[in-house]
Amino acid sequence: MGHLAGDAQLAQPPPHGLLLTGGTSRRMGIDKAQQTVGGIPMGVRAGHALLQVAQPVIAVGPDPGLGLKTISDDRRGPLAALAAGMRHLAEADLCGPVLLLACDLPFVTPELLSLVARQLGDAGAAVPVKEGRLQPLAACYAPLALAAAESQVAREELSMRALMENIAVRRVEPEVWGRVAGPGALTDVDTPADLRAANAASSEAARG
């Protein structure tokens, strides 16, 4: 694992990490993890951020090229992927908090992930908020969230929003996570237009 990020270091032991690289990429039309932002595949960008603060990191879906252990996501969406990943960790006696990061969030930083993990406390999840909406694919989950996630999957209730209603969520508001990350840190890339905009933003940041 890489060094923990600067002044955003976590208390030991670090959380475990799940990198979501699978799914159907229905709106993008092609594999999102391999699409580049700033010349780097999004799966690699997200994986590098997660590797700075989590150990081990497992890809739920294909390895984006980082040599990660992989498990199948069975293409039932992020809730099923979270449940499968947390179950795999639990069966390996890795029962600490879990940082979940989707590969289509290419601007999430190690500092942001570290801050979110520190907010967990006794909640079921610590979830950043963007424009008033929870962002559960860049969040930290307590081990107790596994039972709720698996119960929903068993009922084919595959909504992350429903999970947010079934566990105690600590909201990480922009005024908190904004201390360590810019306003675009939680920008998601779902469509070809989003990808073009992300590359334009990356180019502007590189010039700036």
Give me a quick take on this structure.
With 208 residues, the chain is α/β, with parallel strands linked by helices. It has helices at 42-51, 78-91, 110-118, 145-154, 160-166, 174-177, 192-207; strands at 16-20, 36-37, 40-41, 57-60, 69-71, 98-102, 125-130, 133-134, 138-141, 169-172. The model is unreliable at 1-11 (pLDDT under 50).
Structural notes for this entry:
The structure is a single chain. With 208 residues, the chain is α/β, with parallel strands linked by helices. Helix content is 34%, strand content 18%. It contains 7 helices and 10 strands. Strand 2 (36-37) and strand 3 form a beta hairpin. The longest helix is centred in the C-terminal third of the chain and has 16 residues, at 192-207. It is globular, with a radius of gyration of 16 Å.
Question: Any key phrases for this structure?
Answer:
Spore Coat Polysaccharide Biosynthesis Protein SpsA, Chain A; 208 residues; disordered N terminus; alpha/beta; 34% helix; two-stranded antiparallel ribbon; 8-stranded mixed β-sheet; 18% strand
* Global geometry: globular
The fourth-level CATH homologous superfamily is Spore Coat Polysaccharide Biosynthesis Protein SpsA, Chain A
The helix content is 25-40%
The CATH class, by name, is: Alpha Beta
Strand content: 15-25%
**H/E topology pattern:** EEEHEEHEHEEEHHEHH
N-C termini distance: 30 Å
What is the number of E strands?
10
Average pLDDT level: 90
Contiguous low-pLDDT stretches (5 residues minimum) are: 1-11
**CATH topology name:** Spore Coat Polysaccharide Biosynthesis Protein SpsA, Chain A
Largest sheet, strands/sense/barrel: 8 strands, mixed
The total count of helices amounts to 7
By helix and strand content, what is the structural category?
alpha/beta
**CATH architecture designation:** Alpha-Beta Complex
Work out the radius of gyration: 16 Å
Q: Please give the domain count.
A: 1
